[in-house]
Design brief:
3 domains; T2SS_GspF_dom; 341 residues; GspF/PilC; cell inner membrane; mainly alpha; Type II secretion system F family protein; elongated; cell membrane
Length: 341
């Protein structure tokens, strides 16, 4: 486990929950299981962290309080483990948390891949275009000059553009880097994050988190109010946060939980029949689990579509641009050569 950052990574949290769950399933006391993990720690950092957890538990502290004291575990995980300890369903909660954080790690990796690939491809495309205009076009200009002809039309415009790019190349590169830095800083601000969180992908991820949290809460015996509290702290999405507040107001006005969910538009209308069935059959926790799985599948599909569309689109644009340059210069050049022949 890495301790470079204050909170452990999703992959580390998933592995920890899975390990403690296996210990409980084996019938071992939790503190004893933590001591085994401590003895088998692969590095000093992991050993020190597990020892921080083990020492207070050996003296009678609960697992959630020991985790809280380290400062390396998220509040949501600590609250859910506390809930599992209080209801006697710690093993189930830990299994669910392991799956949740494993899924969060997969989503983060998917988003990183979906963003990194287009950025690298864009950088390569821009580099090719700049080289074409700045270095290749002057070669055609020399050929035309040696043949005693002048560039006209589109070729002349591109040639002038080439001269400007060669003259101000460093300034252009500096401007592009500055623009990229401004965009990066903007998306780190509150307004930038709010803009990103309004996208369909962000809403799908937030809905999945909400459904998963409500599933854990309801299946562990919590009431809807406490479940909404946990979910609101977890989703970290201002759009969905506003809808959860609307859901609270609807409940306070006398609506049932299922009616409040439908009227607050937390989920899309396609899930309305699921929620209605869950309300009538008393299996709302299972419905939330199914909705969570469906939202996760939707997130995967959106990421896959984005990657599958952006790759050929950018390659096609690059081919069109290069083809346009070559046609603009080669067709007049072929005409000159044929007339000389």
């Amino acid at each position: 486990m890495s301790r470079k950052s204050k909170i452990l990574s999703n992959a580390e949290l998933s592995a920890f929950c899975q390990q403690i769950s296996l210990i409980i399933a084996a019938g071992l006391p939790t503190y004893y299981g933590v001591s085994i993990l401590c003895d088998e720690a692969p590095d000093k950092q992991t050993h020190d962290l597990l020892e921080q957890i083990y020492k207070p538990m050996e003296l009678g502290a609960t697992l959630h309080s020991a985790l809280k004291d380290t400062g390396y575990f998220p509040k949501y995980m600590i609250n859910m483990i506390q809930l599992g300890e209080e209801t006697g369903r710690l093993e189930e909660v830990l299994n669910s948390l392991s799956k949740y954080y494993n899924r969060e790690d997969e989503i983060a990796s998917g988003i990183k891949s979906a963003v990194t690939y287009p950025l690298v491809l864009s950088a390569v495309m821009i580099a090719v275009i700049v080289v074409m205009i700045a270095k290749v076009l002057p070669v055609f200009s020399q050929i035309y000059a040696e043949l005693g002809s002048e560039l006209t039309g589109t070729a002349a415009v591109l040639m002038k553009l080439s001269k400007y790019i060669n003259r101000y190349l460093l300034i252009i590169i500096a401007f592009m880097l500055f623009a990229a830095l401004v965009l990066f800083i903007f998306f780190k601000t509150r307004f930038g994050k709010k803009f990103l969180m309004k996208t369909a992908l962000s809403m799908s991820i937030a809905s999945s988190r909400f459904a998963n949290c409500m599933f854990l809460a309801l299946s562990s015996g919590l009431d809807t109010d406490r479940g909404l509290d946990l979910a609101q702290a977890l989703v970290n999405n201002p759009v969905l946060d506003s809808k959860i507040n609307d859901c609270r107001k609807n409940i306070s006005n006398g609506e049932t939980f299922s009616e409040a969910l439908l009227h607050s538009n937390i989920f899309s209308k396609m899930y309305s029949s699921w929620i209605a069935i869950g309300s009538k059959t008393g299996s709302m926790d299972e419905v939330m689990q199914h909705i969570c799985t469906s939202c996760e599948d939707d997130t995967d599909a959106r990421l896959s579509r984005f990657i599958s569309v952006i790759e050929p689109a950018m390659v096609i644009l690059l081919c069109i641009f290069i083809g346009f340059i070559l046609v603009s210069f080669l067709l007049p050049l072929l005409g000159i050569i044929s007339s000389i022949g």
